[in-house]
Design a protein that fits this description.
Largest sheet: none
Order of helices and strands: HHHHHHHHHHHHH
Helix content: 55-70%
Number of helices: 13
Shape: globular
Structural class: mainly alpha
Radius of gyration: 18 Å
Distance between the termini: 9 Å
Number of domains: 1
């Protein structure tokens, strides 16, 4: 099943991704499957990587913040921007599970903020299943569990629980020397929140009511630069390397943003959205 219905031509995506089907096939072949419950980690565990991660988490805005502003800014909900729960069965590597766990928690907040309660139960179950496959179920249930099950129709309660859960999972993973998984969740949540926001804004005319969203997107220039700097520590990870390359290309686009203003050229938004499509179609991420 295709993840989303995206109003962009295949040609444009291929050009902006700077890749071809052969490269995608090679990446897919190189993917190592992991269907075990217990998750083994590879990647840097040195103090530099931990310091960069800590600094980034302290300084980067919550991925839920900008998604939570969307309805208040008068931007209509679009279900086609969600990562379908049917995709979850395709996430067979630890890397994909971490990345898409991050994406699904953002989708949950997007749904609750827009009071789309009919879909929340399914997305909650999918997110919980991924937490279990990442060997993080105890941490997940400690914060969410029955609390969220009893609040499926209360947006404020859901968002509060998801915010607490995000911090709990991060702390659990880092205390268990699983910085790589924590980083993958961070990537997935940041990409999803930005994808949803940019995809909606590229079709919006800036007004007094929604200009805060344009300002928030501009502010992500610094966040992405810090994220790319952190990912230098993971260049040798074969599953994450294609994602790092895509984020580096995206960073080049974000450098054209003017931090501190709400000025974003429509053409620039379209370039950003096209690059997010590249991330989605990368066989190491969403697809």
């Amino acid at each position: 099943m295709i993840k989303r219905v995206i109003a962009i031509s295949c040609t444009a995506v291929l050009i902006s991704c700077g890749g071809n089907t052969e490269k995608a096939a090679e990446t897919k072949t190189a993917e190592v499957k992991d269907t075990t419950t217990k998750v083994s980690e590879t990647g840097p565990t040195d103090e530099l990587a931990d310091f960069k991660f800590t600094t980034l988490v302290i300084n980067i805005p919550s991925p839920f913040e900008i998604v939570g502003i969307l309805p208040k800014a008068g931007v209509n909900f679009n279900t086609e921007l969600l990562n379908p729960v049917e995709n979850a069965s395709k996430y067979t590597t630890s890397s994909k599970k971490g990345l898409n766990y991050g994406a699904y928690v953002v989708d949950l907040v997007y749904l609750s903020t827009n009071q789309q309660f009919a879909q929340i139960k399914t997305y909650f179950k999918t997110t919980r299943d991924l937490a279990q496959s990442l060997d993080c179920l105890e941490s997940f249930d400690k914060v969410a569990g029955k609390r969220l099950e009893k609040s499926m129709d209360k947006a404020d309660s859901i968002n509060k629980v998801m915010d607490q859960l995000y911090g709990e999972m991060d702390g659990y993973l880092r205390s268990n020397d699983r910085l790589l998984t924590a980083t993958e969740i961070l990537i997935g949540s940041w990409v999803e929140s930005q994808y949803i926001t940019v995809s909606l804004l590229k079709n919006e005319t800036k007004t007094d009511k929604n200009q805060v969203l344009f300002t928030k997107v501009n502010e992500q220039r610094n966040s992405l630069a810090k994220l790319v700097d952190l990912l230098k520590e993971y260049e040798k990870d074969k599953n994450l390397k294609p994602i790092i390359d895509e984020l580096k290309d995206l960073n080049k686009i974000y450098t054209d943003l003017k931090v501190g203003t709400s000025d974003i050229d429509k053409t620039l938004l379209e370039k950003m959205q096209a690059k997010f499509v590249c991330l989605q179609t990368n066989p190491n991420f969403y697809s």
